[in-house]
Amino acid sequence: MSVKRLDSTKPIIEITWEGIVSPEQVDQVNAEIEKIAPQLGNTFDVIVNMIHMKAFPQDTKDKMVEHQKRLKDLGMKRASVAVGGAIAKMQLNRISKESEHQTEFQWETYDEALAFLLK
User: Fold this and answer.
1) In terms of pTM, does the model score above 0.85?
2) CATH topology for 2-118?
3) Euclidean distance between CA atoms 63 and 23, whole angstroms
4) What digits encode the pLDDT tens for the residues 86-109?
């Protein structure tokens, strides 16, 4: 799990989820984003790398719904997500629906996800 401002001329935050994500990791990511968002003028895109993520346990899934709502509140315009497995993709679709996040785009590779945001 990691969060950083992407080295780009555009305001992009990169989030990487790996393995089985815990609720505590979601809280850590939120804390980091709350520090980075003001540096980007409170309007930014997010690239999410989930290629090596296994799944969200139920308690983490609930946290992810809150996480997506929080990102929107902090100024996220769009999310471009590289999703590896079918289970992760299915969970992500459910989470996006529950958080009413309608500006999420999914890709099979990180490069495709990044290219979309850099257009």
Assistant:
1) yes
2) Transcription Regulator spoIIAA (3.30.750)
3) 6
4) 777 778 778 878 877 778 899 999
